[in-house]
Write a structure and sequence with these properties.
- By secondary structure, the protein is mainly beta.
- The chain folds into 2 domains: 111 residues, no CATH class; 36 residues, no CATH class.
- It is 15% helix and 44% strand.
- Strands 1-2-3-4-5-6 form a 6-stranded antiparallel sheet.
- A hairpin with an 8-residue loop joins strand 5 and strand 6.
- The longest helix has 24 residues.
- The chain is elongated.
- The N and C termini lie far apart (89 Å).
- The N terminus is likely disordered.
């Protein structure tokens, strides 16, 4: 067993990524987790192994569990920016490690927004939320944020009938 002076950390992602395949078709790849090898110097050179990415890749009707290498590459020559890069099979574009972290952060924020919506609004049968149409009269007319169905509470109407 060879011991390394590098520290290793595991980053869990657990989300789907739609990728465009060579030829224009798309595939839904499940990004599971990345094992990141920390550089003892704190700086990586182009071509250094950054770590490994575990994915589930759909191919020929099967879901293949793959472990792909992540290498350091120049991603923007003008700004002299390097990043960990993953090359997926049959996909022209490379995936940046930074993008995976960004998307994970975005998905976590979306979950927080979803929790807030559940606390504030009633859920519609389509899965959307019944939100007030008018801030001034929140109990009068509500509409669904997804299917646009509407409910009116005539008792809360600001319109006074003679």
């Amino acid at each position: 067993m060879v011991q390394s002076t590098n520290d290793v950390r595991v980053e869990t992602f657990n989300f789907h990524e739609i990728v465009t395949l060579i030829g224009g078709d798309t595939a839904k790849v499940y990004i599971k987790e990345a094992t990141i090898i920390e550089s003892p110097e704190g700086v990586r050179k182009i071509g250094d192994l950054v770590g490994h990415l575990d994915i589930i890749y759909p191919f020929a009707g099967l879901d293949l569990e793959l472990t792909l290498d992540i290498y350091e590459e120049m991603v923007d020559e003008d700004l002299d920016i390097n990043d960990g890069v993953i090359k997926l099979p049959f996909v022209e574009d490379k995936i940046l490690l930074h993008d995976l972290f960004f998307y994970r952060s975005f998905m976590e924020e979306q979950k927080e927004v979803e929790k807030e919506m559940e606390l504030l609004y009633i859920k519609c049968s389509c899965g959307g939320y019944m939100m007030p149409m008018y801030d001034e009269f929140p109990n009068w007319i509500t509409f669904c944020s997804r299917c646009d169905s509407r409910n009116e509470n005539s008792e809360a109407s600001p319109i006074v009938e003679p």
